[in-house]
Amino acid sequence: MENKKVSPNWDAFTGIFSIAFGLIYGGMTYAMPRAAFGNPLDPIYFPMGVAVLAIIIGCILLAKSNIKASVQAYINLINEDEVKKFDRKRILYTCIVSIGYALLFDSLGYVISTFLFLFAMLTITSGINEWKKSALVAIAFSISVFFIFNTLLAISLPPLPFMG
């Protein structure tokens, strides 16, 4: 018998994530409001198909995966050097800031939410020492794009909260 070394991969974890995503997405899809006329399930068909497809792909991926290889990939991730860990933290911060931007966009308006988003992203990429430049770029970009869209292009963006 030949001793084979297992190559680390994320297949098992990706399969579990895909199944969980499909179940949550499918549940949220089923809870969508029904159509007022015509077939009440028409708005649900496509998103439910996406959910079912995610579950099927997740099951296939989980069935073909090697759990030991996925565990080894996770162990390798934990034991990474500090540079790679810092890069992964920056990716995590970027995801958190992006989700926050999406959640705050309507309530804070375009200018404030975009300023906060850009300022946070520039701080993540260039560091806290460059906060003055980051703030200047973020405010200049936010206001100028808002002006261009609202005034010159007549495309409405969410206004400042105190402007109604």
TrEMBL record:
Keyword Ribosomal protein on entry: no
Keyword Transmembrane in annotation: yes
Residue ranges of domain DUF1468 in the record: 15-158
Signal peptide: none
TM stretches of this protein: 12-32, 44-63, 91-124, 136-157
Keywords: Membrane, Transmembrane, Transmembrane helix
A Pfam family of this chain: TctB
Protein name, as recorded: Putative tricarboxylic transport membrane protein
Organism: Vibrio hangzhouensis
